[in-house]
Design the sequence.
């Protein structure tokens, strides 16, 4: 497949659809220099974006957390996504909505005089972790930690917060792994580089408390599904030493959906019945 800058199709930018290859920004765009950007990753199934409104609401909220009020309402963002899917004749695929501070009168840390811009791109995208959906992903343990909420707006889906995720995933791939699990600044288990994490022990589910990282929309959906099934879910701080006692593990995220994990560092997990059940139930839900 061609690179993401060289494809046929259309991208919605600042209120209009433009030809894919023409969807460009200036080299002095503020976001390129200072990470003043927020985004959403969404999936469309059978012509419907799962939890679309929640994603649009979070995009605006992320902007507010970065002192960057988006010039588009939730309804306008929804219309932009629908128009982009229609223009590209796509009913099943990935949706990327992004907002950023563009080029303008300011070119320093402060950027109040620069316009806040927005775009929506869509494309076909298969399993984020390839065949890990059936055999379980292999994860490295990252050397980087999720920072304290006193140092970052951890509830924002902000581009700058993914810098250490990119480095951690590169290091993991160099070791033959699909991804990396990260600890938080206190040493508790946090998440993968772009997905939340769940563990199973004796029929109960344990997942890190999202007090230092993004509480994913897919994570919230899966917690609700588990509780609806009568399964006990513990949202709590998890120590690294506990990994040895967990029997199953999976990741959740819009891109990852529900992906089983077979190994984290030296710890192994089975792709067990509960993992398979919740993955199947999630697949049915998003396509309902």
Sequence:
């Amino acid at each position: 497949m061609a690179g993401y800058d060289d494809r046929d199709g259309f991208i919605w930018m600042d209120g209009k659809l433009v030809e894919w290859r023409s969807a460009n920004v200036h080299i002095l765009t503020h976001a390129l220099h200072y990470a003043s950007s927020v985004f959403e990753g969404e999936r469309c199934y059978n012509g419907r974006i799962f939890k679309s409104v929640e994603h649009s609401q979070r995009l605006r909220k992320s902007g507010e957390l970065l002192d960057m009020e988006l010039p588009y309402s939730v309804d306008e963002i929804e219309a932009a996504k629908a128009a982009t899917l229609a223009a590209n004749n796509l009913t099943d695929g990935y949706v990327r909505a992004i907002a950023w501070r563009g080029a303008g009168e300011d070119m320093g840390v402060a950027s109040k005089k620069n316009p806040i811009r927005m775009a929506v791109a869509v494309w076909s995208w298969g399993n984020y972790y390839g065949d890990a959906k059936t055999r379980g992903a292999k994860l490295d343990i990252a050397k980087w930690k999720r920072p304290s909420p006193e140092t970052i707006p951890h509830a924002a889906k902000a581009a700058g917060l993914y810098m250490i995720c990119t480095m951690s995933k590169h290091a993991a791939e160099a070791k033959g792994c699909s991804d990396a699990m990260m600890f938080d600044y206190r040493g508790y288990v946090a998440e993968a580089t772009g997905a939340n994490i769940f563990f199973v022990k004796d029929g109960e589910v344990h997942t890190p408390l999202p007090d230092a990282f993004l509480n994913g929309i897919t994570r919230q959906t899966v917690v609700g599904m588990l509780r609806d099934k009568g399964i006990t879910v513990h949202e709590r701080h998890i120590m690294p030493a506990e990994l040895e006692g967990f029997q199953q593990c999976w990741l959740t995220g819009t891109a990852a959906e529900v992906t089983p994990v077979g190994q984290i560092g030296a710890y192994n997990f089975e792709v067990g019945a509960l993992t398979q059940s919740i993955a199947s139930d999630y697949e049915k839900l998003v396509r309902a």
User: Anything to note?
Assistant: The helical segments are 30-34, 52-65, 74-87, 132-135, 163-174, 217-228, 273-286. The first strand starts at residue 10 and ends at 13.
